[in-house]
Amino acid sequence: MSSTQEMDQEQETAVGSIIKHDLLASVVVFLVALPLCMGIAIASGVPVAAGLISGIVGGLVVGTLAGCPLQVSGPAAGLTVIVYEVVQRFGLEMLGTIVLIAGLMQAVAGVLKLGQWFRAVSPAVIKGMLAGIGVLIFASQFHVMVDDKPKGSGIRNLVTIPQAIWKGLAIPEFNGREDRKFRTEMLRTVGDLHQRQVNLHERVAERVPHPGNREKPESSDALVEIATVDLVDLATEQSQITKELSAVGVRLKEFETESVPSKKFTRINEAASLAILQSGAAATALQQNNIEEILPRQVQAVASLEDLMSHQKNHHLAAYLGILTIAVILLWQGAAPKPLKVVPAPLIAVVLATLVAALLAVPVLYVEIPNNLWSDVRFPSLTVLSSAPWAAVVQAGLMIAVVASAETLLCATAVDQMHQGPRTRYDRELFAQGVGNVVCGFLGALPLTGVIVRSSANVQAGGRTRASAILHGLWLLIFVAGLAFVLRLIPTSSLAAILVYTGYKLVNPKSIRDLGKYGRGEVAIYAATVSTIVITDLLTGVLVGIGLAAAKLLYTFSHLATRLEQEQGSRRVTLSLQGAATFVRLPALARELEKVPARAELHIDFSELDYIDHACLDLLMNWAKQHESTGGKLVIDWQSLHARFNPDTAKNGAPASESVVGPNESVGESTVSQ
């Protein structure tokens, strides 16, 4: 057979393998990734489209360049806390820039071959970080699961969980179908207006920076120049929102007149009147180029629409859909036939909750996503960049880079243990993640990492090459581009329920037992990392964990326990050493040697010693010279010492089992390397 024929046959075999294995695996990974991309976006406080774009980039870009072919990348639950804090602190318009900076750092680290260094973190810190993130996700998404907003901090979210439970346990207001359809329609309409108002606010902020964010006060001429920048289109859009909001107000009043009077609908109408007023004021500020009023009016317009939505929410119905979602996940994982388990449990749960919500016209919040995915793409704006607090922005980018890199490379290590294929090239994987995050940052999307849930699904579904990860990104792109209307049928509470379950799984009590096998110190580091993350923030928690791990390492290499025992009626004295005999503990060892009686026969027990350095060996040899002058002896088990610290030497002909140093004997330069 010719070489050309052999090459053709190999290509046909490769194509056949992709069709047979990777095509099916890519569909499974796509089904797992779809609800997670949306749920993580909601948990991060960004539009759903930002999560979906990251999933697409993770497949098409990172999948092509990846150093771990079977690892699947996308938005990760581990970064939701950081992203949420970034958005709250800097605004959604700065997220893309921060992610882009993180990506550049990762790419440079990959080029400099620093991939292995990102793995040099104590497992207790990593597991503590994931558990802390799990607690924060669980606590924040518990509120979203009942169509409420997170309370702002981890502690507040945890403390107010009973309030969320109380809201979810309220007596259902399950009125007639026409009533439910009207409430659902109003929620959708107001939700769409709210999303448009948020987007408009961001676009206004890009063109008209807030005076408080400028490094230098602007002159009146400069303010006029900024105000005369093309704001006509923004004013027109704000007026359109006001017009549609007024139509909503009319319909709400008509419905209140036709239905049974209730305090709830009275409050809804009052909130609608306020939202119309605030939206109109925002439109007037834009039309009049009132530079000092434009952004404050935008903030008020967004807040009033959020208030209107909050009055329309049905927390109990959302809670029931969330509980249904979690119950389906648990039942599917435990009772589904093995051949059907290839279909992810979260997907089954979301589909069922969506069907129930659609058939019963349940008036709850639904996913907000534009018909055109590109309308939610936010390219970095020169206006925003010029007024950015760069020191804080770079620090945030560094935090995302470090956490994303650690999570990615640890995930890659876990993926390597799941299959027998090619091993991970860590530097290439780090570079690929950096390129992916640069693209995500340029598009204003969520940061991405390698994620274990999607990666394990890929391996278990039979993925063999990087084609499965690439194809899953293609399926996401096709689905989002052509079937966005389907995503708008999904209740937000159902996606939040998936993340509540994900947060619980991240805590993973089993990891505490595993760490306990290595001592209480590892468990203490884990607990300190978790509690600090929950009480303060992720960066502080990780730094505390790393600091404690370093302190434990220092303690381990500086701790030496000594025990001196003398047999009754005998000259034999035994000195047992436990821990690390280094120069740091030289004084303690010297004190023990001073307690040895004259003319005693001292035996050194190294059986529980982890390490001994030249300084301590030199002390023993010098002490032996003095001790022999009083008629004493020093007996050292060199063979056991060699066996512990130099196994090769012990195998290839170790010295005599004991060396006795006694009166009138010369002590040479005895060392462990002897």
What would you say this structure looks like, in words?
With 674 residues, this protein is mainly alpha-helical. The protein contains 28 helices and seven strands. The protein has helices spanning 3-44, 48-65, 80-90, 92-111, 123-144, 154-159, 161-168, 177-207, 220-227, 232-258, 263-287, 291-312, 315-335, 345-359, 382-386, 390-416, 426-442, 452-460, 467-482, 484-487, 492-507, 509-516, 520-535, 538-558, 586-594, 614-628, 638-645, 647-651, and strands at 73-74, 449-450, 560-566, 572-581, 601-612, 633-636, 659-661. 67% of the residues lie in helices and 6% in strands. The strands form two sheets. Strands 3-4-5-6-7 form a five-stranded mixed β-sheet. It is elongated, with a radius of gyration of 33 Å.
List low-pLDDT spans: 5-13, 212-223, 649-657, 662-674
Count of helical regions: 28
- The shape is elongated
Strand percentage lies at 5-15%
The biggest beta sheet, please?
5 strands, mixed
Give the number of domains. 3
Q: Order of strands in the sheet with the most strands?
A: 3-4-5-6-7
Multimer state: single chain
Helix content: 55-70%
Q: Give the tally of β-strands.
A: 7
Radius of gyration: 33 Å
Structural class, by secondary structure, is mainly alpha
Mean pLDDT, as a whole number?
A: 81
User: How far apart are the first and last residues' alpha carbons, in Å?
Assistant: 61 Å
Write the layout of secondary structure elements.
Blueprint: H1 3-44, H2 48-65, E1 73-74, H3 80-90, H4 92-111, H5 123-144, H6 154-159, H7 161-168, H8 177-207, H9 220-227, H10 232-258, H11 263-287, H12 291-312, H13 315-335, H14 345-359, H15 382-386, H16 390-416, H17 426-442, E2 449-450, H18 452-460, H19 467-482, H20 484-487, H21 492-507, H22 509-516, H23 520-535, H24 538-558, E3 560-566, E4 572-581, H25 586-594, E5 601-612, H26 614-628, E6 633-636, H27 638-645, H28 647-651, E7 659-661
Parallel strand pairs: 4-5, 5-6
Antiparallel strand pairs: 1-2, 3-4, 6-7
